[in-house]
Specification:
By secondary structure, this protein is α/β, with parallel strands linked by helices. It is built from 13 helices and eleven strands. It has two domains: about 290 residues, Rossmann fold (3-Layer(aba) Sandwich), CATH 3.40.50.720; about 110 residues, Dihydrodipicolinate Reductase, domain 2 (2-Layer Sandwich). Helix 1 links the parallel strand 1 and strand 2.
Length: about 400
C-alpha cells in the first residue's frame, strides 16, 4: 500500500493552459506569492480535517505533450498567468519538459503534433507510455503517482463493443484497432502500472466495463469525466433550484466564446460533439422530463461553443433560460459569466490529485463517484445513478471526508 510520507508524482497528459496554471500555481503557493483559492483541500473546513493528504511540497510534476514547449514556454503561450508572476516561476517551469505524446490525427485533426511517439502500433505505444511511467517513478525515487488526462478534446466516436473488456481491448491494441484513441492508451498504461487515473476531459477513455475490468486487476481507483468549471457549474446550481421550486423550463440556450487552444480544437464538429454530450448531461438528468412532463416535457437544450481568439483563456458564457410558473405564465433568466477557464480548472485538478492519492492509499478502487462534485459527467456509481445536483454532490463529498477523518481521530 502506498505510504503518505513520500513524494507524490503527478503525471499530466497535456502540458497546456490548465496544466501549466496548476504547476505554476502550486509553485506560487509554496513560495507565498498567492493563495490556493478554489481548492477545497487547501481551504477551511476541509484543510482542517486530519486526512493525511499529500502536501504541496510533496508534488513532483511531469507529463506528455504533442508539442515540445517546456512548461514556461507553454504557460507564456497560454497567457493565463501574468508575465510578472511567470518570470518569478521561470526557473521552476523551464525544467519541466514534456515527454513525447501519443498522437493520432484521426482523433485530433485540428492540431498537427510534432513532439510525438514514433512507435508503429498502438500496442507499442502502450508499452512506450508504460515505460515512461516506470522511468519517471524510478528517476524521482517515487513509489506512487496519479495520472491526469488534461489534453485537448478528441473527436467523438461511439463506444465499440470489441473494446468493452480488458481481453478484448488487448487484442484490439495488437490489431491496431482504429477505435482506440490516445486517451485509452494513456489510461490503460496507468492502470497496468498501478497509477490512479483522473479524466478531466470529455474524451473516451473506455466504457465502464473496460474501466472496471482494468481497475479490478490492479485495485486502482479512477474518476471522471470533464471538469465542471464554469457554465455547467452554474447550471448544476440553478437547475436544481428551479426543480425544487417546481418551476417549469421550456428551454435553456447556452453559448460560449473561448480563444485558447481548447476553443480552437472545439471548432472541429466531432470534437465539439464530445464536449456537447458532456455539457448536456447535467440538465437532462436534473430535469428528467419523463418524471415531470408538466414542467419539463417540452424542454429544449441548445449548447454552442465559438472560437474567438481575442478572448484567449478568458471564456465568456451566456445562458438564456425560458421558464414558466403559475398558470403557465412565461419568465426568463439571463446569466453572463465572464470567467477564466484555467483559473477555475487548476484548483479542481489539485483537489482531485490529492483526493485520488488519498483514496488509493486507503484501499479504494473502481469508480470514485463520491467525487462527482468535480465533473460534468460523473463516472457510474455502484449504488445507482449519480446526482448532478451540486448541493447533493457536495454533501456526499463532505460526508465521506468528515466521516473518514472522524475514524482517524
Amino acid at each position: 500500500m502506498p505510504r503518505k510520507n513520500e513524494k507524490l508524482g503527478v503525471l499530466t497528459v497535456g502540458m497546456g493552459a490548465v496544466t501549466t496554471t496548476l504547476m505554476g500555481g502550486v509553485h506560487a503557493v509554496r513560495n507565498g506569492w498567492g493563495k490556493p483559492i478554489g481548492a477545497l483541500t487547501q481551504m477551511k473546513p476541509f484543510s482542517e480535517l486530519p486526512l493525511g493528504l499529500a502536501e504541496l511540497d510533496d508534488l513532483v510534476f511531469a507529463g506528455w505533450d504533442i508539442f515540445p514547449d517546456n512548461a514556461y514556454e507553454a504557460a507564456q503561450k497560454a497567457a493565463v498567468l501574468d508575465e510578472t508572476l511567470l518570470k518569478k516561476m521561470k526557473p521552476s517551469l523551464v525544467s519541466h519538459k514534456p515527454m513525447n505524446g501519443v498522437y493520432d490525427p484521426a482523433y485530433l485533426p485540428s492540431l498537427k503534433g510534432t513532439h510525438i511517439k514514433r512507435e508503429k502500433s498502438k500496442w507499442a505505444l502502450l508499452q512506450a507510455v508504460r515505460n515512461d511511467i516506470r522511468t519517471f517513478l524510478r528517476k524521482n525515487k517515487l513509489s506512487r503517482a496519479v495520472l491526469v488526462l488534461s489534453h485537448s478534446v478528441e473527436s467523438y466516436r461511439p463506444q465499440n463493443r470489441a473494446l468493452s473488456t480488458f481481453d478484448g481491448f488487448m487484442r484490439a491494441l495488437k490489431k491496431n484497432h482504429p477505435g482506440i484513441p490516445p486517451s485509452m492508451i494513456y489510461s490503460a498504461a496507468a492502470f497496468l502500472e498501478c497509477v490512479p487515473v483522473i479524466n478531466a476531459t470529455p474524451n473516451n477513455w473506455g466504457g465502464m466495463d473496460l474501466l472496471s475490468d482494468m481497475s479490478a486487476m490492479s485495485n486502482i481507483p479512477f474518476v471522471g469525466c470533464d471538469l465542471k468549471t464554469g457554465q455547467t457549474f452554474l447550471k448544476s446550481v440553478i437547475a436544481p433550484a428551479l426543480r425544487k421550486r417546481c418551476l417549469g423550463v421550456s428551454g435553456w440556450f447556452s453559448t460560449n466564446i473561448l480563444g485558447n487552444r481548447d476553443g480552437f480544437v472545439l471548432d472541429d464538429p466531432q470534437a465539439f460533439r464530445s464536449k456537447e454530450r458532456s455539457k448536456k448531461a447535467v440538465l437532462n438528468d436534473i430535469f428528467n422530463p419523463k418524471e415531470m412532463p408538466d414542467l419539463y416535457g417540452q424542454f429544449h437544450h441548445k449548447v454552442e461553443i465559438n472560437y474567438y481568439p481575442p478572448r484567449g483563456d478568458n471564456k465568456e458564457g451566456w445562458d438564456n433560460i425560458d421558464l414558466f410558473g403559475w398558470l403557465g405564465y412565461p419568465m426568463q433568466i439571463k446569466v453572463n459569466f465572464l470567467c477564466r477557464d484555467s483559473i477555475l480548472a487548476a484548483p479542481l485538478v489539485l483537489d482531485l490529485v490529492l483526493l485520488m492519492d488519498w483514496a488509493h492509499r486507503n484501499g479504494r478502487s473502481g469508480p470514485q463517484d463520491w467525487l462527482g462534485f468535480y465533473f460534468k459527467s460523473p463516472v457510474g456509481s455502484s449504488t445507482g445513478k449519480s446526482s448532478h445536483d451540486l448541493s447533493d454532490q457536495y454533501a456526499r463529498l463532505e460526508k465521506l471526508l468528515t466521516s473518514s477523518a472522524g475514524k482517524l481521530l
